[in-house]
């Protein structure tokens, strides 16, 4: 009888170990427009949100995320609240000037092998260049990562498309698709960002046409938890047209999305940001480049 109990316990422990090992293959990714630190945001000023916002990253155990609208001051605040993370990126005006679209990553889990920035313009290597009919310079921060747990290699791109330029958003989608192919080749890719465009728009269709998959569309309703939109504009009643403008795309058979979550962070009239973050859990389905 004692031996039988020991065997049962051994099988249970073995199952726990196997499940833990399977969980280690998961990669939790987020896209987070944090809203720049405007002094005109009333109760939603950055000082009232920064701890809440960074706590959400830690609570959901995000391995890597792309952020948008990040000023240098906010970047330093986030780094201070997130000591387990490193970041890469530069301001859209060059160096520490202008808003960043940084990539934050868990330094114990991931290693950067290569990284850079390019601008969404006709001259993508020209610092602070503004493209087409865009109101502002826009950038893409990218990096090649190695997962320290199993050696898997993947590329991560993060961006923020222009809020006014219709042509600029279309051309930006074409450019980023081209640069992904140029930089990542056939490697697995994750693309995060605030694309300032609806799911039925031309930029969205361009990205899908270039073999990037929208994680939302790749999953069933049971695998998604979302209010149905990502931009809240500090509106408690969620009035007007509401749809997704923040996305996480992916490419590669090695990556398989498991869950999609839009964190509707709202506490009365207080919001975590004027965008709700998108959080996606991926599973590595086989071994990528070593």
Task: Explain this structure.
- This protein has helices at 2-24, 46-59, 72-81, 166-184, 202-209, 215-218, and strands at residues 26-33, 64-68, 85-88, 103-106, 110-119, 139-147, 153-160, 189-194, 213-214, 224-225, 246-251, 255-262, 266-267, 270-271, 278-284.
- By secondary structure, it is of the alpha+beta class.
- The protein has a single domain (29-284), classed as Deoxyribonuclease I, Chain A.
- It has a 7-stranded mixed sheet. A 6-stranded mixed sheet has the order 5-6-7-8-11-9. A two-stranded antiparallel ribbon has the order 13-14.
- Strand 7 (153-160), helix 4 (166-184) and strand 8 (189-194) form a beta-alpha-beta unit.
- The termini are far apart.
- It comes from Salegentibacter salinarum.
- Keywords: Signal.
Question: Can you tag this structure with a few keywords?
Answer:
290 residues; Deoxyribonuclease I, Chain A; 7-stranded mixed β-sheet; 6-stranded mixed β-sheet; 6 helices; 29% strand; globular
Largest sheet: 7 strands, mixed
| Overall 3D shape | globular
CATH class: Alpha Beta
* Poorly predicted spans: 1-22
**Termini distance?**
47 Å
Strand composition percent: 25-35%
Helix content: 25-40%
Total beta strands:
15
CATH overall fold name: Deoxyribonuclease I, Chain A
Question: What is the mean pLDDT?
Answer: 92
So, the CATH homologous superfamily?
Answer: Endonuclease/exonuclease/phosphatase
* Widest beta sheet: strand line-up: 3-4-2-1-15-12-10
Structural class: alpha+beta
How many structural units, i.e. domains? 1
Number of helix segments? Answer: 6
């Amino acid at each position: 009888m004692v031996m039988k109990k020991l065997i049962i316990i051994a099988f249970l422990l073995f199952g726990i170990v196997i499940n833990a090992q399977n969980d280690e293959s998961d990669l939790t990714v987020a896209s987070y427009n944090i809203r720049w630190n405007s002094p005109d945001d009333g109760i939603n000023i950055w000082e009232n949100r920064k701890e809440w916002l960074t706590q959400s990253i830690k609570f959901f155990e995000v391995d890597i995320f792309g952020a948008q609208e990040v000023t240098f001051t906010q970047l330093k605040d986030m780094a201070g609240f997130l000591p387990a993370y490193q970041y890469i990126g530069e301001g859209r005006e060059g160096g520490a000037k202008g808003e960043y679209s940084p990539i934050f990553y868990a330094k114990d889990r991931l290693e950067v092998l290569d990284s850079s920035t390019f601008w969404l313009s006709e001259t993508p290597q020209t610092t602070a260049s503004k493209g087409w009919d865009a109101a502002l310079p826009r950038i893409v921060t990218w990096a090649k990562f190695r997962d320290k747990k199993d050696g898997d290699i993947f590329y991560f791109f993060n961006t923020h498309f222009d809020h006014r330029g219709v042509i600029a958003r279309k051309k930006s989608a074409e450019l980023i698709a081209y640069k992904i192919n140029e930089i990542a080749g056939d490697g697995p890719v994750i693309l995060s960002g605030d694309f300032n465009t609806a799911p039925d728009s031309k930029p969205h269709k361009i990205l899908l046409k270039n073999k990037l998959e929208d994680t939302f569309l790749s999953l069933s309703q049971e695998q998604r938890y979302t209010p149905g939109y990502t931009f809240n504009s500090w509106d408690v009643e969620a009035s007007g047209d509401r749809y997704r403008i923040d996305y996480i795309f992916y490419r590669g058979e090695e990556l398989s999305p498991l869950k999609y979550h839009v964190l509707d962070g709202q506490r009365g009239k207080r919001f975590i940001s004027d965008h709700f973050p998108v959080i996606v859990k991926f599973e590595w389905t086989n071994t990528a480049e070593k």
